Amino acid sequence: MECSSNPTPLLLCHPPLDNLDKEKSTVDTNGSVDRVIAFDPSALRHQRKIPAAFIWPSIDAASTDDDGLAVPAVDLSGFAGGDAAATARAAAQVRAACGAHGFFHVIGHGVDACLARDALSCMAGFFALPRARKLRGRGRGSRSAGSAMWGYAGAHAERFTCMLPWKETLSFGYRELGGDRGVVDYFTSNLGEEFESMGWIYQKYCKAMKDLSLTVMELLAVSLGVERSHYRDFFEDSSSIMRLNYYPPCQEPELTLGTGPHCDPTALTILHQDDVGGLEVFADGRWRPVRPVDGALVVNIGDTFMALCNGRYKSCLHRAVVNRQQERRSLAFFLCPQEDRVVRPPSGNLGAPRLYPDFTWAEFLGFTQRQYRVDARTLQAFTEWLGQSPS
Ligand SMILES: C=C1C[C@]23C[C@@]1(O)CC[C@H]2[C@]1(C)CCC[C@@](C)(C(=O)O)[C@H]1[C@@H]3C(=O)O
Ligand SMILES: O=C(O)CCC(=O)C(=O)O
Ligand SMILES: [Fe+2]
């Protein structure tokens, strides 16, 4: 597999647009995947070496610098309460962080601490289930573009054949409109009635993340000098993605990755990580950890927001590493526009000259699920692909 996520000379690394098809060259001649790995950490634990499919190119798995990334802790309480000085301070912090690397912590965010704790801890029960049971949570999503990514996935081994991530995930969609128990219904209909209480935890957690993401959108607008409600209104009817990440301990952590180097294609990510650590950002030419801070949530700009602000704020390359001793859990809430909404920056001084073409989230999500494995240059590849498409 050609390197598709070389972090150093990003622009010098041009994999073919269909980097998914390239990987399928390891599919056998009658079209079926011949080396599907059933990711079963309890069985893999007894092997001295990890399977070759989990080994990443050394450039992607390059070691981490000790120097933690300086991410500001943006206190949202004053901003939400309408305090002018607190707003100016928060906007300045966000402007500096997003102009540099796009990552910041939020504190004073108002998310119930018990809910946040429960959402992180209750996933343990799910990932500890036998594999066959977890697989019941596969696939039945409502939206076709993303349906391959809904439900349970063990190392994405059904989608990819090499550079597999050392993780298990459970993903589901969240949209508020159309009912206030969509997540609960997802859990009970896909996993079983006994998952109802877990479904309620994520139902409430998603609502809290949606509200928080709209507050952050307001702050981003203020920080960019855009009309305060502009992005909030844009995302009011958003359809977002909730993902539970479970990273088991790994016997050869320096050879693999929990999540490979990528920029999030989505608009905004709110990450709740446990206290183990593993998130890293590629900044100033090196991989730097974003150390967990108790009570804080990590926020980062994704490609879709970078397009919405015409490149003023960065969607930055990041990854998650694993370690020998400890399992790690994280919760990622990905804010995405409603599928058919056109992504374009507001007119005015942000808008020209345009760096990216108009697109819809349905098109971009479809590209990441059918055409291209998300990496460091997804938005660029998507832009080129749009330019080549008939219309
Ligand atoms: C739209 C998306 C694609 C990925 C999930 C997400 O909702 C946001 C980030 C993307 C991802 C996590 C980036 C790293 C590679 C990936 C395959 C993964 O390791 O999970 C990505 C997701 C995907 O499912 O395509
Ligand atoms: O688990 C983490 O720390 C990061 C995961 C991530 O970047 C993602 O899911 O997009
Ligand atoms: Fe990410």
TrEMBL record:
Pfam families: 2OG-FeII_Oxy (PF03171), DIOX_N (PF14226). The keyword ATP-binding does not apply. Keywords: Iron, Metal-binding, Oxidoreductase. SUPFAM superfamilies: Clavaminate synthase-like. It catalyses: gibberellin A53 + 2 2-oxoglutarate + 3 O2 + H(+) = gibberellin A20 + 2 succinate + 3 CO2 + 2 H2O; gibberellin A12 + 2 2-oxoglutarate + 3 O2 + H(+) = gibberellin A9 + 2 succinate + 3 CO2 + 2 H2O. GO terms for molecular function: metal ion binding; oxidoreductase activity. GO terms for biological process: gibberellin metabolic process. Its cofactor is L-ascorbate. Coiled coil: none annotated. It comes from the Eukaryota. Residues 237-337 form the Fe2OG dioxygenase domain. Belongs to the iron/ascorbate-dependent oxidoreductase family. This is Gibberellin 20 oxidase 2.
